[in-house]
Amino acid sequence: MTRSTGECAHADECTEVVEAGRTVEPGTGYDARDVPGVLPEGLGEAIRATAAEIAEVLRGVADTSVPVPGSEWTVGQAAAHLAQANELMADLAAGQERSYGDGTPQSLATANERALAAFEERDAEPLAGLIAAHADAYLKAVDRCATDENASVVTPLGPMSRAVLGSYLLTHMLGHGYDLARALGRPHMIDRSRVELSLPFLITAMPRVTDADATARLTARYTIRLWGGGRFGVTFTDGAVSVTPQPPSRPDCVILIEPVTFFLMALGRCNPWGAMARGCVLTWGRKPWLAPRFPGLFTAP
Predict the structure, then answer these.
(1) Distance (Å, rounded) from C-alpha 295 to C-alpha 222?
(2) Full-model pTM
(3) pLDDT-flagged residues of the chain (< 50)
(4) Per-residue pLDDT, 38
(5) CB–CB of 239/212 below 8 Å?
(6) b/e burial code for range 82-93 (CB count within 10 A of at least 16 → b)
(7) Based on the number of CB atoms within 10 Å of its own CB, is 278 exposed (0-12), middle (13-18) or buried (19 or more)?
(8) CA dist 241 to 106, 158, 224, 248, 251, Å?
(9) Taken in order 160, 241, 214, 294, is the CA torsion positive or negative?
(10) Quick one: which of 131, 142, 135, 134 has its CA closest to 95?
(11) Distance between CA atoms of residues 281 and 261, nearest Å
């Protein structure tokens, strides 16, 4: 629920993925239209594994005052925020009402700071345990509420099903897990399959984080395609945005992007110009010049 900015440490990985032969034919991966009411296949495992990998990054760290690159937070603050956020989402999945800002990036930042000020733990070992424990609590809550799987819960970014909330939880952990790994010189835990599982949340959240100033009077149709995976459409009509699982029939601009680069860019962790220069992004269509503008149309919460 907060972002760090700057050039991504992922800089050369999109080229390495292609050279390693790990891509698959377009359209054979997850399709954003297939978002069931229960947890999609692999989401529960990804949540549990990501929490465990973040905990492993933290364990043994003696000094959590190390700054997180591109952020005002230290490792201890970022880990504390992640533990608190995991607890919040577990509570929401269990049906508890928790207020946390009004959905705007500014209100979420304020809520983050207030929550951190009220929570003093900054040591790596206990925070690692809390991050994993609260992720597991979310999964248990979803399992207990399986008969009410289609009911919405109210989240910091609006109403969502428990399945989309799980995608939100995974997305949030991956973003901050990336920050922690980068700060501590460890490998991050983002991969193509986990990015695919983040799409339900990202598609849901995009209209809620549109930058009104950047999109004012904009009329444009985008198709976003991930290498070897999902695709979706984003249409602006005189500034109003619509995000749909089905891409528009006649897009003005098609953006084909390496999945991890897409994820980092969506969360404000990667510079779009650098990604394009490295060949992680390809564009075409009637108005391909619209592509570099796309990331700036949204404000990552």
Answers:
(1) 12
(2) 0.87
(3) 1-7, 9-13, 15-37
(4) 65
(5) yes
(6) bbbbbbbbbbbb
(7) middle
(8) 20, 16, 14, 13, 14
(9) positive
(10) 142
(11) 8
**CB under 8 Å, gap of 24 or more: what pairs does 116-119 form?**
116/77, 116/80, 116/81, 116/84, 119/80, 119/84
Q: What count of other Cβ atoms lies within 10 Å of the Cβ of residue 264?
A: 26
Structure tokens at 216: 């004012």
Distance CA 220, CA 296 (A): 14
Question: Which of helix, strand or coil describes residue 260?
Answer: helix
| 32 Cβ contact list (under 8 Å, min separation 6) | 199, 200, 203, 230, 231, 232, 245
For residue 110, what are its two tokens?
Answer: 């304020």
Ordered DSSP codes for 173-235: HHHHHHHHHHHHT------HHHHHHHHHHHHHHGGGGB-HHHHTT--EEEEEEETTS-EEEEE
> Of 71, 266, 272, whose CA–CA distance to 179 is shortest?
71
* Per-residue pLDDT tens digits for 227-263: 988 899 999 999 999 999 989 999 999 999 999 999 9
